[in-house]
Amino acid sequence: xxxxxxxxxxxxxxxxxxxxxxxxxxxxxxxxxxxxxxxxxxxxxxxxxxxxxxxxxxxxxxxxxxxxxxxxxxxxxxxxxxxxxxxxxxxxxxxxxxxxxxxxxxxxxxxxxxxxxxxxxxxxxxxxxxxxxxxxxxxxxxxxxxxxxxxxxxxxxxxxxxxxxxxxxxxxxxxxxxxxxxxxxxxxxxxxxxxxxxxxxxxx
Length: 204
Hints:
Blueprint: H1 3-22, H2 30-37, H3 41-47, H4 51-63, H5 80-98, H6 102-111, H7 118-144, H8 153-169, H9 191-200
Helix pairs in contact: 1-2, 1-4, 2-3, 5-7, 5-8, 7-8
């Protein structure tokens, strides 16, 4: 691929990303992406067959690649507690950079074929599998070296990953999980308080 074609492809992805966030996935048309990229509509179709295909590429290049640094965690010469802290930081960093707003998620789930795209489903599955395997390995190591109490590492990994996923997603869920509670945003909670509960539980 020539430098010129690569730059046009990047312009398309950048324009689509900004439009999806600011205008919404459903309300963004291919012509909008073309205008945002400063190219003709036909040029967009030279690189991507549909808007869903653009979204899939954005997932791979912006979302999934943001977790590449997790692969380095298992071999780091730090405590397993610190590895979990770094794991959470990677999640928080990627969520703040690459998570779309609630309206975008509603549009995507209700009106788009994107989540029925086998390639996207496969990419999401591989990312979740990678994140879980790394977290499970960290917990298993922590139990083995007696840094963590003896427990089922698989159950612990499921519990910790579930807690982390819910914690980081509250601001972006299509519906409010706290309808009966005062409005809560994760930024109102202290990271250390969450980690203390995560790592030490409710028992004093």
